[in-house]
Amino acid sequence: MKFLHLDSSMLGAASVSRQISREIVDRLTQLHPGAEVVARDLASDPAFHLSSAHLAAFQGAQTDNRALTDDLVKGSDYIQELLEADVLVIGAPMYNLTIPTPLKAWIDRIAVAGKTFRYTETGPEGLLKGKRAFIASARGSIYNPGGPMAALEHQESYLLGLLAFLGITDVQVVRAEGTAYGAEAKEAALQQAQDAIAKIAA
Ligand SMILES: Cc1cc2nc3c(=O)[nH]c(=O)nc-3n(C[C@H](O)[C@H](O)[C@H](O)COP(=O)(O)O)c2cc1C
Prior knowledge:
With 202 residues, this protein is of the alpha/beta class. Helices cover 39% and strands 21% of the residues.
């Protein structure tokens, strides 16, 4: 059993999504003793944004740019780690209505036709079948469906759509929202997430 644990919050030790993702991984490790955890801190060690230099390299162009070469290796490692993972745990705060840019940079490197999805005559098909995922979501406001903020929700909905596109449909969102509404609201939101984590089954 292999877990891939991603974090993307820029708030370090104060991060809510990091706390939730860590507690999910702890819970999964209790349920699956001996599981291997591969962790990526995308905030402190991000990939470069995908660029024309990357696309040229993918098509075989040679480069003597050491930073680009290292980054290309990082992107290949991302894909290998994802292919090998049985369970993904994605720490994903909402920043400016969507996911943090380092998490988007990771997605830009793993969403590769022929590796994680493919195009067929009837449309795209995800190739990451049989995996389970958890989204550790934290956001300052509240985006309940039908509420005034619902139309601005491009964080969980984007990740759920992306995972489904790649073939991952067994996804649980563990959410703390309203974290910006004061200390009490933040504590209650975290408690709700922790209650959900305690119910995670093998
Ligand atoms: C740069 C930045 C942008 C943010 N943008 C939003 C936003 O658009 N909507 C929202 O509800 N909260 C927003 N927040 C609040 C965070 O989502 C909230 O503090 C959340 O708990 C952050 O998760 P983290 O503690 O894991 O980083 C933003 C916070 C930061 C630092």
